[in-house]
Amino acid sequence: MNKDLAEATRTNSEFSGVVDVHNNAKKELDALYKSIFDGPTPDIPEEDQKEHAVGQAEQNYNTVSLQLSTEKQARDILTDAEKFLKAAINDILDAENHASMDLYGFGGTWAEMAEHSALIKCQQNVSQVEQLITQAQRVQPAVQKIGDIRIPQMDIMSNVVFDNVFSDYDMRKRIQAALKQLQAARTGLQRELGASDRRRDDIQEGLNGLKAILDQKRGELQDCRKRAFEGVAGLPEYSEQPPSYSPSAGNNN
């Protein structure tokens, strides 16, 4: 069995070498055709027509490829915005917790300062979200707004120095309202991420079709050039298929 395995490995290696030689020869031949036929060839109008068709197919493919790249870029920006929005929601929940402690008389000044710090962090994260959404809209105008977000900030004099139950209650209500806005923004952002995914998939599907057309047009151009070259040079027809391999071929010597 080991002997058979070794023989199979050797045969496969030799065959791969034959295929590689064939593929390299084909690339060199394609380069030769390109050096001869690129540009106008008045004597071979069919070649010019097919070369133009390849150029048009390449342009169509490149245009849609750029659209796909743009959509992916916008999607990446929205993903970054989602990370900052999650952080903002965590911050506002932290602030709400400290606001409740302060309202019911737990934590004192420490709870107020922790609430103040959480709200500042939340606003910083929201600012990042807003900047990223604007950036995504510049890249992909189809991206929609995700809603207004207003994060309340504490006033040190009224909420700390002259602290009372009414100001504490009012602040907690404002924090809870901000939480609802953030949750609505999260829903809006998820909607935009889903819309971006659908646009990306549609563009990719169209790009796949254009790639098939481009490959077909390139093949037709190469076939035309091959016929013209062989006709002028008086060469036998070149086969696109690699030569068949026979194990005995390597044992004739």
Number of helices: 5
Q: H/E series, N to C?
A: HHHHH
Radius of gyration, in Å, reads 34 Å
Structural class of the secondary elements? Answer: mainly alpha
Q: Indicate the proportion of strand residues.
A: under 5%
Average pLDDT across residues? Answer: 82
Structure description:
The protein is mainly alpha-helical and 253 residues long. The protein has a domain of 114 residues. Helices cover 80% and strands 0% of the residues. The longest helix is centred in the C-terminal third of the chain and has 69 residues. It is rod-shaped, with a radius of gyration of 34 Å. The relative contact order is 0.14.
Q: Secondary structure elements and their pairing?
A:
Layout: H1 2-37, H2 45-103, H3 108-139, H4 156-161, H5 165-233
Key structural traits:
253 residues; mainly alpha; 5 helices; rod-shaped
Compact summary:
The protein has 253 residues and is mainly alpha-helical. It is built from five helices and no strands.
